[in-house]
Write a structure and sequence with these properties.
By secondary structure, the chain is α/β, with parallel strands linked by helices. It has two domains: 191 residues, UDP N-Acetylglucosamine Acyltransferase, domain 1 (3 Solenoid); 57 residues. Helix content is 37%, strand content 13%. It is built from six helices and 15 strands. The chain has a six-stranded mixed sheet with strand order 3-6-9-12-14-15. A hairpin with a 4-residue loop joins strand 14 and strand 15. It is elongated, with a radius of gyration of 26 Å.
């Protein structure tokens, strides 16, 4: 039991640069308090003490601002960062090493009791601020949910979901939300610039336009050489752009590198 408590504290120290000491984490982190209060509430729920489980979760909500249904399953090293306004539904499952930010809802879209209505998060998933994950589907290991995304379909392992409704950005080699692997890099708030599909599309268009201008300039240079060799004034480029003026680097910086 004490090893698990130490693991709860250490995961916060690892992922939050604002955490300065163990004592500060124990006394000042409502996400940790919510986890610790959820465990007896979940035990009561599993033992058939439904009212007592709900009452403990209600007290936890009042103290921490985090509402976790006692029926929800939460793994080890889960970190609710800030987490005010987080709602975790009855049949939700959160895997080991997940990070949940403020304003997140793990909700359901069905009113049928006894069914799997809420999402299951795999290991090391990051769900960023304001995201809504709605439905009884699976979010794969190492996936990232961007800020304010509304996810209504499964997310593959290592992928990123952004937008309303969420678009799925496939995983890239060597990148993941996994913070437990030695080489893993933790993506705070779940999204990096490389995961923005609009930015990626704009950069692709900029690169294509720059390449086309370069090719046109080369063609005009070739025409100029031919016209000079033949002394054909009709083929002289005249006002044609012999120099590239398309400022691809500046436009790329505008949309984000």
């Amino acid at each position: 039991m004490f090893a698990r408590l130490r693991s709860d504290i250490q995961c916060i120290l690892d992922r939050d640069p604002a955490a300065r000491s163990t004592w500060e984490v124990i006394t000042c982190y409502p996400g940790l308090h919510a986890i610790w209060l959820h465990r007896p509430a979940h035990w009561c729920w599993k033992q058939g003490l439904k009212w007592l489980g709900r009452f403990i979760s209600h007290i936890a909500r009042w103290f921490t601002g985090i509402e976790i249904h006692p029926g929800a399953k939460i793994g080890d090293r889960v970190f609710f960062d800030h987490a005010m306004g987080v709602v975790v539904g009855e049949t939700a499952e959160i895997g080991d090493g997940c990070t949940i930010y403020q304003g997140v809802t793990l909700g359901g879209t069905s009113l049928y009791k006894g069914t799997k209505r809420h999402p299951t998060l795999g290991k090391n998933v990051v769900v960023s601020a304001g995201a809504k994950v709605l439905g009884g589907f699976f979010v794969g290991d190492g996936a990232k949910i961007g800020s304010n995304a509304v996810v209504i379909k499964p997310v593959p392992a290592g992928a990123t979901a952004v937008g309303i409704p969420a678009r799925i950005i496939p995983s890239k080699a060597g990148t993941s939300a996994d913070v437990t692997a030695p080489e893993g890099k933790f993506a705070a708030y779940g999204v990096t610039l490389e995961d923005d599909p609009v930015s990626q599309a704009m950069k692709g268009l900029i690169e294509n336009a720059s390449s086309q201008e370069h090719q046109i300039a080369l063609l005009w240079h070739a025409i100029e050489k031919l016209s000079t060799a033949r002394k054909d004034t009709d083929c002289v480029p005249g006002d044609a752009a012999l120099k590239e003026s398309f400022e691809a680097d500046k436009l790329t910086q505008l949309v984000g590198k």
